[in-house]
Design brief:
alpha/beta, Alpha-Beta Plaits, 11 helices, 14 strands, 34% helix, binds adenosine-5'-diphosphate, binds magnesium ion
């Protein structure tokens, strides 16, 4: 992969506070051009700290990061990055549009662009209303609009759905998906698996400062399994054991659980039917990403994973 296609690369990025707190611990991650990258982890895992280092807001204690080919905070790359980290400060008594005008003026952005970003985040109809009257979803979307003013190549969004109601979450999810198409990349943090699962190309899972996985959502979830109900069950079992090997076949509650790719369902069905075994049910079971995540981050029973 050429350098042009890698927008963010960190190597052993580390942030310590004092001698006891390691907020980010040797994180090495890569964000590619045109992808939505989900940075996933429970509260306190080190997501915000990592993002602040990428933006040059705080300095790493150890390790290195390259953002758009430069060190974090380099003026040239900052003009190509839009960020929403922590709640943006808007003037409550100015309209949404006037708030954007204030930002656009010092960022040297055209008036036309203000109308474009309002449209992108679906706030055109409410652009004349005071910020104070906006719902939390609208406030967040205005924050995204502000981050989009410079038409950035990289958009860094720190938990943009925090505090939103389900409708607001759904709107934000659609928005992020539309923003992450084409050339632009989105680095999106979340502690809610559901969001990441649906809109991200790849995810990095962080727990207690350590990046414990980086992969596509599919890879993270694993291949899954097949459940087979058949009569007679013992003959079905023998047959699939011949096909797959005994170690990949289990009997659970009177059902066969096969460690096999769901894509193999058709072949297995044909084999059983061909051996005069009646297949009453055959369906794939996917491990829910949530289970995988809880297992990995060792947070079983905690309630903050949505
Ligand atoms: N300025 C700071 N001083 C001391 N500890 C901090 C500071 N900022 C963050 N931390 C600690 O670093 C860890 C990671 O925090 P953070 O990056 O905010 O996590 P997340 O964004 O994933 O919820 C937490 O334990 C937090 O308390
Ligand atoms: Mg955070």
């Amino acid at each position: 992969m050429s350098e042009r296609d890698i927008l963010v690369e960190t190597r052993d990025l580390t942030k310590r506070y004092g001698s006891r707190i390691v907020a980010v611990d040797r994180v090495s991650l890569t964000v590619r051009r045109g992808e939505v990258y989900g940075f996933l982890g429970p509260n306190g895992a080190g997501k915000t700290t990592t993002m602040r280092m990428l933006l040059g807001l705080i300095r790493p204690s150890l390790g290195a990061a390259s953002v758009l080919g430069r060190s974090p905070g380099h003026p040239e790359s900052l003009t190509r990055i839009g960020a929403l980290v922590e709640s943006p400060a808007f003037y409550p008594y100015l309209s949404g549009r006037d708030n954007l005008r204030v930002i656009a003026r010092y960022a040297g952005v055209s008036k036309e662009r203000i109308a474009e970003v309002l449209d992108l985040v679906d706030l055109t109809d409410r652009a004349r209303d005071k910020f104070a009257t906006y719902s939390s979803g609208m406030k967040q979307r205005l924050g995204v609009a502000a981050a989009l003013l410079k038409d950035p190549e990289l958009l860094i969004l720190d938990e943009p759905t925090n505090g939103l109601d389900p409708a607001g979450v759904a709107d934000m999810r659609d928005l992020i998906r539309s923003l992450g198409s084409g050339e632009r990349s989105v680095l999106l943090s979340s502690h809610m698996l559901g969001e990441v699962e649906q809109i991200c190309d790849r995810v990095g899972v962080i727990s207690r400062g350590r990046l414990i996985a980086e992969s596509t959502v599919e890879e993270l979830r694993g291949k899954g399994a097949l459940l087979v109900d058949a009569k007679p069950l013992n003959r079905a079992r023998e047959r699939v054991e011949q096909l797959l090997g005994a170690e990949r076949v289990e009997v659970l509650d009177g059902t066969l659980r096969l460690d096999a790719d769901p894509a193999a369902a058709g072949r297995i069905n044909r084999e059983l039917v061909g051996a005069n075994i009646e297949v009453t049910e055959l369906r794939p079971v996917e491990r829910k990403l949530e289970e995988v995540f809880l297992e990995m981050t060792d947070q079983k029973g905690e309630s903050y994973v949505g």
